[in-house]
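agent> call fold_tool(seq_1)
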Amino acid sequence: MTETTYRRVNARVTGIAIAAALGGFLFGFDTAVINGGVDALAGELALSAALKGFAVSSALLGCALGAWFAGSLANRWGRVPVMLVAAVLFLVSAIGSGLAFGVVDLIVWRVIGGLGVGAASVIAPAYIAEVSPAQIRGRLGSLQQLAIVSGIFAALLSNALLAWLSGGAAEVLWLGLPAWRWMFMVAAIPAVVYGLMSLRLPESPRYLVLRGDYDKASQVLLDFTGAKDVNLKIQQIRDSLESEEKESLRDLRGSALGLRPIVWVGILLSVFQQFVGINVIFYYSTTLWRSVGFDESSALMTSVITSVINILATIVAILLVDRVGRRTLLLVGSSIMTVALGTMALAFSFAQVSGGEVELQAPWSLVALFSANLFVIGFGATWGPVVWVLLGEMFPNRVRASALAVAAAAQWIANFIVSTTFPVLSGVGLSFAYGLYALCAAGSLVFVWRKVRETKGVELEDMH
């Protein structure tokens, strides 16, 4: 392959990987968008504390369901049609949530959006892995996490802008509707963009071979991966699919508690990614920054800055993942997170409670602030993107979509558990909460050391 051809192929596959990764943007946007208007909508809809909490987290249950069924649907219909369905579901949810007239239909719309986000969270990494050349697959797979953190940033920024234009999330903005409703409806924009871009994507060559459409698979491989011998690659894909069919007619079933060991590795990677408490930083960051002495305005601005740090850390991961390797980055990340979370637990052991508010005095306030951002950097440069890369590539061809669906569903459930238990754990004490997350980070180090294989440069057909 000439240098010019190599660059053209890389540009093409990067383009379709970016388009597919927009599903991650919906993921991040949905994660952060409700935070800007949660208090305002709770006031207008007269929600109790319990209902407010469930309205926030109900989308995560929808995400788990969407992720669970996405794999089987992708194997039946194809990767691209499931992306389109996800875009439609998120579009409907954005408009419905913005026009909700009561808590019941708000939760229904949130769950519908969650179904779309959950499906997109499964399909994007699988699709990117299946269309990417092995030598740049890690970088392209990392685009999923970059899209997620960019979606979080975009939601925080749009929320702040709409609140500023109206004078507050509960104040009327346009057409007689308060700003918090427009915060939801703005999400229709990335949903439409994702749907339109999905229409232009080629189908995954692995799926096309699975369905016997070898001519189309050959064309995709030739146009987007730069395969030197397309016929040989097609045969390798066929051989891997046939060997998997002989190995297990029940796909994911195995001897280890009903599932294959590789599926359990994927599930535990997903669970550890959430159990280190990363979403506590993004869901409850304003509360954290106020505890270290910031006023509300400064706390909101610091949350935006933290999301920018997360984006920059993810870019670092994109640059390193195909050079350093997945396993090494995870080990480094686990070590950094363990130290950062342990230090936060130590700092908050010196906290004082005044009027129900947690307060930290210098120098521990500065220690907590530094440690929280170190934790975000450690996660953003390693576990955030690398887990998505691994989930997209570590499973054998025949079970990839289904196994990724199970692992992603586990991730959403773990996210739900962490998000809903943090208020209870912080009630016991922030030192206790962050100490528990530090133990999970230490556990992730041991798990990766003992159970996770390096997949850098390995062809998908060689994943067993």
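agent> call fold_tool(seq_2)
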Amino acid sequence: MNVFLNIWRRKSRLTRFLVLAIATLGILISLMLVLPALAQQQVKITVMMQALEAAQWQSIEEKFEAENPDIDLEIIAAPNATNLVEDLYTSAFLLGDTPYDLVYLDIVWVPKFAAAGWLLNLNKFVTENSLKGFLKGDLEGGKYQNKLYRIPLRSDGGMLYYRSDILKENGYNPPDTFDELIAISQELQNKGIAQWGYVWQGKQYEGLAAMFVEILEGFGAYWVNPDTLEVGLDSEKAIAAIKFLRSTIELGISPPGVTTYEEEETRRLFQGGETVFLRNWPYVAGLASQSDIAGKFALKPMVHQPGAKSGACQGGWGLGISATSKHPEEAWRVIEFISSEEMQREFVLETGYLPSLRSLFTDPAIVAKYSYYPQLLEVVENSALRPPIAQYAQASDILQRYLSAALTNTMSAEKAMKSAAAETRRLLVR
């Protein structure tokens, strides 16, 4: 009897072991099937930014992922040189299957990238109401042939800085016209109060074209009409615009070396107290506020001819969606999050960059830190766009060459502008 009981107990233990083994195997098989499925639910969205900005967006990237656990947002750090970032994006698109779902776009890249078919039309994601809060110039800069390809994240615009203390002490109001700018500069120089009257970016590079857009606008002229592709560089008003810049050098208002200056050279002259007026970008306000001229300067829209209007060359960066992205809906969620008022406020407070949302220029927290932001709103609302044409890079190169020739007196203003216009027309016909 005991023998039979022992056999049964051994059989029972074996049975229980087999049942347990089968159950464990079943669980393992289930996990093998379920875990990959769970992993596949998280979508990776990639974007490339300059290394400096990639670091600045890090905290917002982490907040996005915390609120959107199904998306892995990867910001890839690129060189800080803008032209190198453009080259990297261009190379990726030309290879056919770009690894980037989002494209971080300088405003002047939009026409080229859109015309090449590299960007997704964003009109299906937006409504008129959802775009109301953005600065008009920033939105227009994200369009190509009336279709929206870029949502702006941070804005930029050229403006006139001036020494408010010097003007006030000598009984001058800030100038509104080109003639007033020249007159005040000469009088202050003649009194020995200022070494230079006005400095601007005259080197042959993109900054020269950007600066000249504002002078053209101030003279009531234009570069290229994007709708008709008509070129206006050889008009009387455009020739007068280049003559004005040349006159600032001839009259000694601007230093002879201004034709070699970029932004930083001109900023240092202004911060060093060597000039009364400066044309530059918003970043100067933050740096000057921490220098010896803190509280002694102010800013305003660029000067213009009577009857014409001021123009701030529209700059800035934003996000578009790659036309080859396999996850456009998820990519759009990233754009919505990053461009929101809350995230832009956080980014502006951390970096001092200009927001693309109008409301943030008068936001109490931002104004408490950057008291000059309400003044910046007046500037960027008077924006002037560089021509949104697919051949912009080539058109800019043409303009830069002939502007430089005129400014360095190797070619007359008339000949330079007529040559620039003729070459630009040939480019657009091709």
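agent> summarizing second result for user.
The longest strand covers residues 312-321. The chain has two domains: 44-157+315-377, 159-314+386-429.
agent> awaiting next instruction.
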